Amino acid sequence: MRISAATLPQARGAARFGYDREAQKVGIVHFGIGAFHRAHQAWYTDRAMEAGDRDWMIAGVSLRSAAVAEQMNPQDGLYTVAERSAAGTDLRIVGAVREVLVGTGEAGAIVARLAAPETRIASFTVTEKGYCRAADGSLDLNLAEGGFYPLLADAMRQRRDAGIAGLTLLSCDNLADNGKQLARLMGEYLFARAPDLASWFEGECRCPATMIDRIVPATTGADRAEIEAALGLSDEAAVVTERFSQWVIEDRFAGARPRWEAAGAQLVSDVAPYEMAKLRMLNGAHSLLAYCGLAAGHTYVHEAVADPGLRALAERLMREEAAPTVQAAPGQDLVAYADELIARFANPALDHRLIQIAMDGSQKIPQRWLETLEANRRMGRTCPAIEAGLTGWFHHLRGANGPVDDPLADRLGSMARAHDDLQLRDLLVGPQGLRIE
Ligand code: CS2
């Protein structure tokens, strides 16, 4: 039997919400309702409602694939979060998702949700490439037409014309200064396609920055079987994650927001030091372990970080290359942070595939490695660990680990095959990011 509102009372061995989900209105439309969102923002929202907050149900949007809708809608949006550590697994059933809409056939329903007065927040985990940026960082208008931009523009027009308040656009992706980037890209879209909305957007909407952190490997069939055995119900939308979770949010919303702090989120005035430390240290070390770990024959992060040579490289990247480029906030301890990251990477209960992290390198490497590299260059310092990572990436681009999953795979692959590592390093890595022909 499968989890749903009707079968929920039969679920065993899992913590769960106590609020009346049917009585709650949708307050958030979320683009990219994959495993990460389900283990992170939806989990915080569920616990904020558990703590007494109301009307923050989430309408999830999957822009292209109907797969998540097929996982979640037959379950009335219910799913399980399994938190795993060496000490064991804890399950929680999350009630915060109302429905999943699919962009390809349900654009009208998505715009209606976004335009509804009770919707206050549109949030995003669409991955780095979902923002449709060209190589120079500006908006690629052709790509943007297939993304979330036109849906938001339609909804903004309806809100403005009906005199409804503006939305908060909350980027929860691993981009540097994600709030500002989203504001700029949305502005570029409106300027080109709906210039009459540009000043309404600027005046009425807000795009706070966020730092989001939780390691969420892709769920496997074995994970689903284990969760079914514990729960007594099958769950096609279950997600597996670590116990650790962090969410730092710039407290600058257009209107109301959930009391996510009741679930442990930090609302601050400046996210930059947290975001920079996370991107450059955690994600930077992750990408290093991915490319160098795959080259050394490893499959999972915990295997790569148990390899003494790779661990030393990851330590070096975090402590000697990345940390010195981050201006820490008061109370932010980057030495302790690096210790904690190594321990999280070593979590033996989490099979986090290196190949999953190796995906979309062209979208990730600028904010993970190149900003660090440039900051060190300005201090007259070299970055041997990042250089080793770049060499690992070049091998990856030449197909060393199988077909390359990256929106720029073709262009990068032919560049990588036409040049040796040194030439490629000079050609590709510029002070402003990657230089892609
Ligand atoms: C990872 C991230 O896949 C990747 O590129 O580095 O998804 C990482 O697990 C998360 O950012 C952790 O918060």
Automatic annotation (TrEMBL):
Sorted keywords for this record are:
Oxidoreductase
InterPro entries in the cross-refs: 6-PGluconate_DH-like_C_sf, 6PGD_dom2, Mannitol_DH, Mannitol_DH/Oxidoreductase, Mannitol_DH_C, Mannitol_DH_N, NAD(P)-bd_dom_sf
Q: Name one GO molecular function term.
A: oxidoreductase activity, acting on the CH-OH group of donors, NAD or NADP as acceptor
What the entry lists under SUPFAM superfamilies is as follows: 6-phosphogluconate dehydrogenase C-terminal domain-like, NAD(P)-binding Rossmann-fold domains
Specify the Mannitol dehydrogenase C-terminal domain's residue ranges. 270-414
Name the Gene3D superfamilies on file: N-(1-d-carboxylethyl)-l-norvaline Dehydrogenase, domain 2, NAD(P)-binding Rossmann-like Domain
What is the annotated signal peptide range for this record?
none
- What Pfam family is a match for this entry? Mannitol_dh_C
The Mannitol dehydrogenase N-terminal domain, residue ranges: 27-261
UniProt-recorded name of the protein: Mannitol dehydrogenase family protein
